[in-house]
Structure formats: structure tokens, C-alpha cells
Amino acid sequence: MRNRPHLAVWKFASCDGCQLSLLDCEDELLALTEAIEIAHFTEATRTSLPGPYDLSLVEGSITTPVDAERILEVRRQSKVLVTIGACATAGGIQALRNAGNMQDIVAAVYPSPQYIRALATSTPISAHVPVDFELRGCPINKAQLLEVISAFLAGRKPVIPSYSVCIECKRRSNVCVMVQGIPCLGPITHAGCGAICPAYRRGCYGCFGPMESPNAAGLTREWQARGASSLQIKRVLRSFNAAAEAFQAESLKHGD
User: Fold this and answer.
1) Phi, psi (5° rounding) for residue 32?
2) Given a cut of 70, is residue 2 above it in pLDDT?
């Protein structure tokens, strides 16, 4: 029997939600293990086989000097490296600190800040090493994750939609919440969630990050025309994907 490709799953600064999405595949995961061997995945097993690894899935952002060194070793050991989730692709919710003073934040949170060793910013994996593919979401869509792994096994490019959440709203027959006066990031957010929030008359929070070629300026002008303040706009843009280039650049136009 031929050797199966080795899969490694790595965690950096994150909540583990994207790793749990892989475990949530359940029956599909059982079929997957027939085609690929899970060589390193501490969330699921104590077994850890030595590298190199054919495919590495990396969750989490880089927030400490130790992790900045560790990701270099992960990259060296990985033939293909795929980042999964908002933390790994855009710095995550923890990137909110990028707009403030890290020393002030640490002093306000920890009783003994002198023991904290953290970087001034939370950055995506791509800011430190080359990344072969980015899978967005907070958390990721498990069907999209299975597509990425299947594409790797087949030696092809993953087929992941690049259009906005608005398309998913149309498919669910959702009434547009923007028409109802609710600020929504859906027009500039990458699809993948199935338009869950707009289905319950809540604006999209941008969990899957910017779509391909987002017109963030056009969207915020529309919000302003409907009475949204600069503070409201900034708060909406600074959430799960606060450090994503399109969201960050537009939020800076409305004050820091």
C-alpha cells in the first residue's frame, strides 16, 4: 500500500474554532483519513509524527516573539501551507490592538505586565512566511475546508467562491437589510457563511473578510447617507477582520 500524504494542523493565537470545524466534519473526516494521514493535530490526538509534512493547515495569528520564530519552522517543514480562519488570514479579533498602544493595553489587563512577552501587533501568517492558499472565515466553512483538502489530494486549485455575501442572501431569498436601514458588510464581504446574520435581520459582521475587489468606500458613503456616524462605521469595520487591508484602510478614513 502506498504511503498517504501527511497532514499537520497547527495552532497559533486563536480560539480553536477553525480546528473544531475540521473535527466537526465527522463522517467526512473518517473518509478523509483513508486518503491522508493526520501526522500532527494536538486538538485531536497525542500522536505527532516528524516532518516534513505534505500539507499544513495553520490556525491563528502571530502575536508573540516565540510564535514569530515557530511559524518559520512550520513553513520549513511544510510542502504546502494553507492558513485557515480570520486570525491566520487577517490577524483576527486580536488585531484590534494594532490601532492602540500595546503597553497601555497590557498594563490595563494584567496585574503583572512585566511578565508579558507580546508583539505590538497581531499579524496574519502571510506577513511572516509564504502562504499557498488562504481559507477565510470566523470560523471557516467546513465544506470549503474539505474542498481545499480534496483539491490538494487531486493536485488542483481549490474552487472557493470569491463573490460577496449578497449572492448568498439572494439564494436564501433574504430581504436586504440595507433596504431596511440596517448597516451591513455583506456587499463587501467574502461569501461562505450562508448569509446567516441577514437571514435574522442583522447586518453582516464581515466574518469572512473582504471579498474580491471590495468597494468599501462606496458602501460607507451609503451608510453615511443613511445617517451612520464615523464612529459607527469604524466600529463595524473593526471586528473579526479588523486588520484585513480593505477593512483597515477604510476604517482609518473615519478616525483612529
Assistant:
1) -65, -40
2) no
Residue 213: all three cell numbers together: 475587489
pLDDT given at position 1: 39
Contact 13, 67 (CB under 8 A): yes
Phi, psi dihedral angles at 87 (to 5 degrees): -65, -45
pLDDT of residue 256: 65
Contact in structure between 191 and 167 (CB atoms under 8 Å): yes
Per-residue burial over 125-142, b if 16 or more Cβ lie within 10 Å, else e, is: beebbebebbbbbbbbbb
Q: Are strands 6-11 and 37-41 parallel, antiparallel or unpaired?
A: parallel
25: cell is 466534519
Q: What are phi and psi of 167, to 5 degrees?
A: -65, -40
Residue tagged 436586504 (cell numbers): 176
Any idea which architecture 6-154 has in CATH? 3-Layer(aba) Sandwich (3.40)
Helix/strand/coil for 222: helix
Q: What is the rounded CA–CA span in Å between residue 188 and residue 3?
A: 43
> 3-state SS of 102-120?
HHHHHHHHCCCHHHCCCCC
Query: In the chain, how long is the greatest CA-to-CA distance?
Result: 65
Question: What is the SS3 assignment for 54?
Answer: strand
How confident is the model over 3-46, as pLDDT tens digits? 899 999 999 999 999 999 988 887 888 888 889 999 999 988 88
Closest CA to 75 of 25, 27, 126, 20: 126
| Domain parsing of the chain, residue ranges | 6-154, 165-252
CA 218 to chain centre: 24
pLDDT tens, residue by residue, 65-109: 999 999 999 999 999 999 999 999 999 999 989 888 888 888 888
